[in-house]
Design a protein that fits this description.
This protein is of the alpha/beta class. It is 42% helix and 23% strand. The longest helix has 29 residues, at 243-271. 31% of the residues are buried.
Length: 276
């Protein structure tokens, strides 16, 4: 049994070739593109990937289309973003895992190593965070329009190796624009207050994804949350020993959290007919 790969793209000419190079071992690679205006589609086709097009609406819908709207050669699908890379140790672990997987195993999670200025920013990135990436597409669905959550009716396993992630490879302006969008979507979701109380009860859950979700729900109710996040990753997690890279990412992460708070207040005031 082998693995198919799908890569989600929008204006990813800077990243796509490197991502495709890291999955050259795969004989079924699909690029799901959101009508890029740069050379993304050209690069995908030149590198031998199948090109599928779908207009972007939200992240969960795009990923669900990748899982359920595309036919794959293999029963397992690895879902990637264009700024991610698959190293050899992860390739070996994935192939061995799907070969040994029993029918009730439907999703494998893995961690990412985020890179900035040529180094792994382990502390300031809040490592470790587990991401659903390798799955049986017919047994998994994606929820939440932003910072998506993967749901399955089967068993979930974790892989020891890491994806490599280069979130700033398109430049700081692109990162800021993307997270400006993210903060708007997070603010809108925050106002819905979906499952906050229930989530906090899972702070001691065995599942690391459940614990992370519960911690996030708790943090959203704290005053000075952006400051707490900065101190947590810069001082508590060890971003302070990562030099300029650690300080840069910690500050940007605090800015992102502050923008969520600002936009939440903005939406609340507009709902009451008040000026911002």
């Amino acid at each position: 049994m082998s693995i198919s790969v799908v890569i989600l793209t929008l204006d990813e000419e800077t990243n796509l070739a490197g991502c495709l190079e890291s999955v050259r071992w795969c004989d079924d690679v699909v690029v799901l593109d959101s009508f890029s205006r740069d050379r993304t589609a050209e690069i995908a086709q030149r590198c031998g990937a199948r090109l599928e097009l779908r207009a972007f609406d939200d992240y969960a819908s795009q990923r669900n289309h990748a899982l359920h709207g595309i036919r794959y050669r293999h029963g397992w699908v690895l879902m990637l973003d264009a700024d991610e890379r698959v190293p050899d140790d992860l390739r070996r672990d994935m192939l061995a895992a799907v070969e040994a997987a029993t029918p009730d195993v439907t999703l494998f999670r893995m961690r990412r190593k985020d890179h900035l200025f040529g180094r792994w920013i382990r502390g300031s990135s809040g490592y470790p965070t587990w991401f659903g990436r390798l799955m049986r597409p017919d047994r998994v669905r994606v929820e939440r329009a932003i910072n998506e959550e993967y749901r399955t009716d089967g068993q979930v396993r974790e892989l020891p190796s890491h994806l490599h992630h280069f979130p700033f490879n398109k430049g700081f302006a692109a990162w800021i624009q993307k997270h400006d969008r993210y903060s708007t979507m997070e603010a809108e979701l925050r106002l819905q207050k979906q499952g906050t109380a229930a989530a906090e009860a899972r702070l001691l859950a065995r599942d690391p994804t459940e614990r992370r979700r519960a911690l996030k729900a708790l943090l959203y109710r704290m005053p000075l949350r952006p400051v707490i996040v900065f101190c947590g990753i810069y001082l508590g997690k060890g971003g302070i020993v990562e030099g300029r890279a650690g300080l840069t990412f910690s500050l940007l992460r605090a800015w992102y959290e502050y923008m969520i708070d600002c936009k939440t207040l903005e939406l609340q005031r507009r709902a009451r007919g008040l000026p911002v």
